[in-house]
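Re-running the complex after MR caught last week's input typo. The corrected sequence lines follow. Everything else is unchanged.
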Amino acid sequence: QQQVKQSPQSLIVQKGGISIINCAYENTAFDYFPWYQQFPGKGPALLIAIRPDVSEKKEGRFTISFNKSAKQFSLHIMDSQPGDSATYFCAARSTSGTYKYIFGTGTRLKVLA
Amino acid sequence: EAGVVQSPRYKIIEKKQPVAFWCNPISGHNTLYWYRQNLGQGPELLIRYENEEAVDDSQLPKDRFSAERLKGVDSTLKIQPAELGDSAVYLCASSSRERSRGTQYFGPGTRLTVL
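Corrected-run output:
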């Protein structure tokens, strides 16, 4: 069973601080790594994504760092805001063309005002 | 462009009762997913369709769960009979290799409570 391990389970950050969430995967059979943001009562929404041929991708305050050799990727939220308080999920998509996604267990982020 | 639509948003039933969830994917998206999300957990795939064909249903509890995607558009997920452990949020997602490079988009989910 392919797995994606996510940490920490919860995170509290002061407003303006940097939030860092980490994920690790167990094999190389993935070709796409998205991060989803989920607010209570809502479905997950795509936040940012990266492909394994790139080591970093930045969109506004959100950055993904990807380490292919270590099989790890992380989400950095710069200048964290209270509105960023949500649950974040990393995911990995299989390379077999089947477009099957495996999700991490989620990180509940709280940004203090 | 309208997003993934799901109904109902909430459902409360007694155990052993049947329940059905409906999903309308983004127009033109040929791939449709049903996920179950337990409280505090990530989504877990139940079934994935490519057009009308269920190409991955290995995680679907087939003794009580069934799904269909007639005409390759809308989909229905059914549970009969429901058990207490089925209480969860059921998420539908869709994607398109041509239009979104396979990126999947989620609906708001149906929160099921089994009493």
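None of the earlier attempt is carried over here. The longest strand of chain A covers residues 30-38. Chain A has no helices and eleven strands.
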